[in-house]
Amino acid sequence: MDSSQNSVLECTSFYDQPHVEIENIPIGPGVKLGIEQVNNKAIGIGGAYGTWGDSYSNEALQQFIEDHLGEPLLVEEKMNLSELGFEYRQHLPKLSDQEHIDVEVEVGTRLLKSAISACGWKPAEIEAVIIGMSAPTCDDYTERIARQAGIQDQALKVSIHKACDSSVAGLNLILNPRLSIIEQLPYNIAEKLLDKKVLVGGIEGLSRIVSLTHDKNALQIFGNGAGIIGFIPGDSMKFLTGETLEAFDEEGVLQVYMLYPHSRNKSSNQSMIEVTQLGENNLRIAGMMHEPVRAEPVVMAGMMGMVKLFVRNGVLIVKDVYRNYRRQMEEAGTPDKGIAVMVTHHANLKINQLKGKNLQKEGIRLVTPWLLKDFGNVSAASNMIAFLRIVNQLKPGDHVLFDGFGAGTYYDVVVVELGGGC
């Protein structure tokens, strides 16, 4: 695996890149949407990713934030965004609540259609759509976009709300038949979807969320983004090992208001995850968050607090999964087999670099390219976008580690083997 991808897309807006198809969503003043389709026929995996809204460089972002706040950013409040791995963010103009819903439903619908097209499939062939999102614009979002994309009503629709971990949690749900959450589900989803055509991804309209906050860290870090991959569990992507972890953010280092139904009950001997069956083929998996005291959708502590929060537990779960993987390779008689790449959540570059250093202290060295300079932190969308950006470098038989983590805090780590073509 070529780790030179760390320098990809240097100082280039996503909209200006080759292979990105630009559309206009005729809502409000008009919303720009860019989508890129990807397909690796050798492994039978394709998908689509993109962003929407106006594109802001780090320099232009400052004026955008100051206009929103109605006051200038102080020198000490300005983050070194390039050091954190980000050069561009996409944000929306002012829209009404209904316009936000309409825009994100249209974005999700077009992304699903593009992902289906990239895979060479038909909408009627899709057996499941699993979408991760931190703050859904409406409770039936996944069901709406699936219907508008032409996907059959009997297909399984699952919405996952575990903040930035949501899309990898969806991947774990699809592939791992031994998840503890299975006891809350009406059936074992991994067993149900084996050898079926599925779509999984993250769709994050974070511009809508940060437009409601005065948190200056959040305003500088987050932006819009979405990534959807299509594959066949057990064929084009095979489960090797994986784990999930809940570790409640008692200190409130990253506070997120739950814009989705949750009882808000927390018990020391119970999972913070609640499963709701919304219809015969429609599920919601929602995680409890440490919510802000004041009326804000998100409140972030300083960067060092974020680093400590995610690195400490993140290293533990990656280490456990990696050791299980090494044990599995020994038992299979392939002790020299290794992981081609680790696809991790792009919270910020410093978090990922420190995690890498701590893993190296444990004797674990994984190629972890940085791939989202032109998006910013797009929460649950980041793992899927990152994977789609390197998928054409991968080949049948490669092993890939997906590392998801996010507010709450929730962690999902999954190792898969890529299969043959379709």
The biggest sheet, with number of strands, parallel, antiparallel or mixed sense and barrel status, is: 9 strands, mixed
**Name of the level-1 CATH class:** Alpha Beta
Architecture (CATH level 2) name: 3-Layer(aba) Sandwich
Task: Report how far apart the termini are.
Answer: 22 Å
Helical percentage: 25-40%
Number of strands: 17
What is the compact description of this entry?
Helix content is 28%, strand content 26%. The chain has 422 residues and is of the alpha+beta class.
Task: Summarize the topology.
Layout: E1 21-25, E2 31-40, E3 45-52, E4 54-57, H1 58-69, E5 88-91, H2 97-119, E6 128-132, H3 141-148, E7 156-161, H4 166-175, H5 189-192, E8 198-205, H6 206-210, H7 216-221, E9 224-231, E10 237-246, E11 254-256, E12 273-279, E13 282-287, E14 298-300, H8 303-331, E15 339-344, H9 349-361, H10 382-390, E16 399-406, E17 410-418
Parallel strand pairs: 6-7, 6-8, 7-13, 15-16
Antiparallel strand pairs: 1-2, 2-3, 3-9, 4-5, 8-9, 10-17, 11-14, 12-13, 16-17
Provide structural commentary.
The chain is an alpha+beta fold. It has a single domain (3-418), classed as Peroxisomal Thiolase, Chain A, domain 1, CATH 3.40.47.10. Helix content is 28%, strand content 26%. It has helices spanning 58-69, 97-119, 141-148, 166-175, 189-192, 206-210, 216-221, 303-331, 349-361, 382-390; strands at residues 21-25, 31-40, 45-52, 54-57, 88-91, 128-132, 156-161, 198-205, 224-231, 237-246, 254-256, 273-279, 282-287, 298-300, 339-344, 399-406, 410-418. The strands form four sheets. A nine-stranded mixed sheet has the order 1-2-3-9-8-6-7-13-12, with helices on both faces. Strands 10-17-16-15 form a four-stranded mixed sheet, with helices on both faces. Strands 4-5 form a two-stranded antiparallel ribbon. It is globular and about 60 Å long. Residues 3-9 have low confidence and may be disordered.
